Amino acid sequence: MLIAMWIVLIVLISWLALTELPAGWDGHKPLPYLIALTPFLWIPFTALAIVGACLHAWPFTICAVVMLIASLMRQSAYWLNDIKAPNTAAALARRLTERKARESGTTSDAARPRKSHPDHGQFRVLTLNCRYGRADAGRIVDLVRDEDVAVLALQELSEDLVARLDAAGLNALLPYHELGEPLPTDNGGFNGVWMRVEPSASTPTGVPIPAADVPTMTIPFSSTRDITFASAHPKSPMRGCRAWSEGIIGLRALIAHPKDEPREKYPTLAAIDAANRAAAAAAEKDGSRDGAFAQAGISAHSATADRAAHHDAAGHAAATTVAEAQTAQSSAAQQPERETICVVMGDFNSSVPHPSFRKLLAAGFHDAALTDARGLRPTYPRWIKWPRIVLDHVLFTDYLTACDVRAAEVPGTDHLALAATLTIIDHPTPLNAGAGETWPDSLPPLARERARDHIRAAHDEADAD
User: pLDDT-derived band of residue 294, with 50, 70 and 90 as boundaries?
Assistant: First the structure.
């Protein structure tokens, strides 16, 4: 019996190891399905550990317990913002506040506070897969109204559902929208974005992926920043596993400068400090301290990919006269490079265990449920409460944070709707350790990314001055 148990344990370990494949390798049938079920492997690991303990097979029991812990590591990220900083106290205070509010009756519709303040950089967003356009239009409009939604992303739309949404009053709540073009190759229908604020730009094809069009709408938030909202629906594995993986990873194109570019483009703080110390030593020798520090600053500044314009200006200044450099800097100041904050919502047909999805996160996206860290937000299937899996996501790039992430039921579709409140912040979004591409990266904080975020924040402060 023990031999059979060891065989079962080895099979389960191999199953869990599929989550550590390189990104793209999971695009082969039936790997997407097997990986999607790995969050439930804690059940057989627990059973094997109990049986092993009853049989006093301690080596076997220890192995089973270790794998049980390993199978839960990525899921723990949905409760911990950082492995080193559990949010237990904050969660407890929040739950006590919510309980008092329920007891005092302050959660009624009349007393419910607004969740969206676009003028102040706060947006309540909602995403839903409408299942071939069969979702209840009235319920969707009620959710938009009750949740004070400012941006709505829908997938698997049909022209009939769009008409029913209009008849139910969606245009009165969210008057601006952009729809993808209906195509025969759409996976269940086309995608759409509705917005309360008038956009400065919009397109039905924000990024080309082998799936339904990804419509985007952009609004200016400040003189230097725009916010782009997108609705995406990569193909399900049953429509082609390779197209499924390529569609997920392809959404990286929404980010101008992915974070997982070559390491030399994002040096660590230690490397920049070493460069500054070397410049200081050289300055003391030749008496040109200020000039040396300026050159070291340019090196550190241009190492960040999203500061390429500043790098070009610095190189031009070194090759031309001081007057020409001042003219170039003045011109650059008059036409600053606009930074785009991207929010992409939808049914991604994948979750953190899938290497392709983690590759998308590694490019610079943050998952709202991981950032909120108040537990799993599984959205599929709607008709049973357990077991459900995480397929729908609200992803965003730096300088946003997420809170109040929750799921809601909509009749007529097989997915739950997912809502989140996004707020503009003045510093890069903290990383969640569970988003690492591999186990070693997922356990400690990602040092290189944190260093890069620190560099960006320092440059932003310098630019503001």
Answer: very low
Tell me how many domains the chain contains: 3
pLDDT tier for residue 109 given thresholds of 50, 70 and 90: very low
Number of C-beta neighbours around residue 6 at 10 A: 17
302 and 392 in a single domain? The answer is no
Per-residue pLDDT for 35 more than 80? yes
C-alpha gyration radius of the chain:
25
End-to-end Cα, the chain, rounded Å: 71
Do 367 and 316 lie in one domain? The reply is no
- Dist. CA 300–CA 290, nearest whole Å: 15
- List b or e across 60-73, with b for residues whose CB sees 16 or more CB atoms inside 10 angstroms: bbebbbebbebbee
CA distance 230 to 265: 27
Domain that holds residue 451: 116-260+338-464
Instruction: Quickly list DSSP for 292-339.
Output: HHHHHHHHHHHTSGGGHHHHHHHHHHHHS-HHHHHHHHHHHHHSPPPE
Residue 417 lies in a domain: yes
Q: Is the domain of 206 the same as that of 271? A: no
